[in-house]
Design goal:
This protein is α/β, with parallel strands linked by helices and 421 residues long. Helix 4 packs parallel to helix 12. The protein has 15 helices and 14 strands. Helix 6 links the parallel strand 5 and strand 6. Strands 4-10-9-8-7-5-6 form a seven-stranded mixed sheet, with helices on both faces. A four-stranded mixed sheet has the order 1-2-3-12, covered by helices on one side.
């Protein structure tokens, strides 16, 4: 008799799910309530929040809120009905794509309903069984899942290691000579956990050398809006935007909304429009999201003060933490990881202390995302944080660090909290 799949699920809850009963609603699936900003309510108490990807502070910008409200009033959430290929096409969708293409300095753009789904589906669409994917080992889960869908070979290079990259490119080239396929290199503009940039310029230079023939697909979810002189992203920041063949950006971070886009050549975008299953068979983005995205893009392009404020806060936060002796790893973007040594139990006690006694809410990252006995507190500075927020956080982290060294947070079990509160 076959195994009952549900019995298997009962016996293996997963590396994080095994702790669900003790952490749900507090360490996992917490509820931040109230208007999105530097301070929000957690379990009835106002907290200083460093866990929301509202980089440019547009979530509650008055112009953005008005555009969203007016569009919802004018159109509702139903329009347009159906997938874009059938009945979901509008002039607003086309206008947003044209504006994104101009901003990204690419020939054409396709809107995506969701970032994760879109990235995964685009990978599946652009390569076939004869092609080879070469990708960075620390790529986001949406890339990993897209690579898993690939019917052909895939080779992974060690994170931002060009020697490893060249080794895998050599393997991929040999294989493609046998299959008649091509090579798609996939990496990120900004790696969202550690905060370091992908070596886009170096990868583009490899292709210019003529040694390898490949196309470059970049997921720049955290770079779009935060990097580059105009906010175009990591490619602009590194001076190699024209070398990115397929550029992915999301509305879920700097744009503080829902949806995503891919910018590339007219041929590639047209191919995606007619072959990308997650878009062909999915309802079009609702009109308020499209109209709202146009307003957000307008502010991103015309009001550099938002990015300037972000970097004023991010620079002060990172400098202050480094001066206080904290290890921020290899970040060279706004993403601010703070690495500590400790157990999972200590990690939960630290987080509990920060939230309950200091009213600081930041994300905790533990194994298997980081190695065992490593704790990562991930801070996301935004344009609406203040320098007072920064100083208070640095002072609190100093106290927390001393407590960790003195054994204050040592425990055998995870911190006990009333998750029903």
């Amino acid at each position: 008799m076959a195994l009952d799949i549900f019995e298997k699920i009962k016996g293996n809850r997963g590396p994080i799910g095994q702790h669900a009963k003790g952490v749900h609603g507090y360490f996992t699936f917490p509820k931040l309530e109230g208007p999105i900003g530097n301070k929000m309510n957690f379990r009835g108490t106002e907290c200083l929040v460093w866990s929301v990807n509202n980089y440019l502070g547009l979530a509650n910008d008055p112009e953005v809120r008005k555009a969203d409200a007016d569009a919802a009033k004018d159109w509702g959430l139903a329009y347009p009905m159906g997938a874009r290929m059938m009945t979901g096409q509008t002039s607003e969708h086309e206008a947003l794509e044209a504006e994104l293409s101009e901003f990204m300095q690419k020939e054409d753009t396709i809107l995506l309903n969701f970032g994760y789904q879109g990235m995964l589906s685009a990978i599946d669409c652009l390569v076939d069984r004869n092609d080879v994917i070469v990708y960075d080992s620390e790529s986001h889960a949406c890339i990993i899942d897209g690579v898993r869908l690939h019917a052909g070979k895939r080779f992974v290079f060690q994170h931002n290691d060009m020697e490893s990259f060249e080794k895998q490119m050599t393997r991929a080239t040999r294989l493609c000579e046998q299959t008649g396929g091509g090579i798609m290199v996939i990496t990120e503009g900004v790696f969202g956990m550690a905060g370091d940039q992908g070596l886009l310029k170096e990868i583009v230079e490899y292709r210019k050398s003529g040694k390898y023939n490949f196309r470059l697909f970049v997921d720049d979810a955290h770079g779009f809006g935060t990097l580059g002189e105009t906010g175009m992203g990591t490619g602009e920041h590194q001076g190699c935007q024209d070398g990115i063949d397929v550029y992915f950006g999301t509305f879920a971070k700097s744009m503080a909304s829902i949806g995503a886009f891919i910018s590339s050549t007219e041929d590639v975008v047209e191919f995606l429009r007619y072959n990308m299953r997650s878009q062909m068979f999915a309802k079009s983005l609702p009109m308020p999201l499209v109209v709202g995205a146009r307003k957000r893009l307008e502010l991103l392009r015309t009001e550099p003060k938002h990015k300037e404020n972000l970097w004023k806060v991010a620079t002060a936060l990172q400098k202050g933490l480094k001066d206080a002796g904290f290890n921020l790893g290899r970040t060279n973007t706004a993403v601010t990881p703070v690495f500590l040594e400790g157990t999972l139990a200590e990690a939960t006690n630290i987080t509990f202390d920060l939230r309950e006694n200091y009213n600081i809410f930041c994300s905790i990252v533990v194994y298997p995302v980081v190695p065992k006995d490593v704790i990562m507190l991930r801070l996301i500075p935004t344009a609406v944080h203040t320098l007072e927020d920064v100083q208070y956080t640095i002072d609190t982290f100093k106290i927390m660090q001393e407590g960790l060294k003195s054994g204050k947070y040592k425990a055998e079990d995870l911190a006990k909290v009333d998750t029903d509160k």
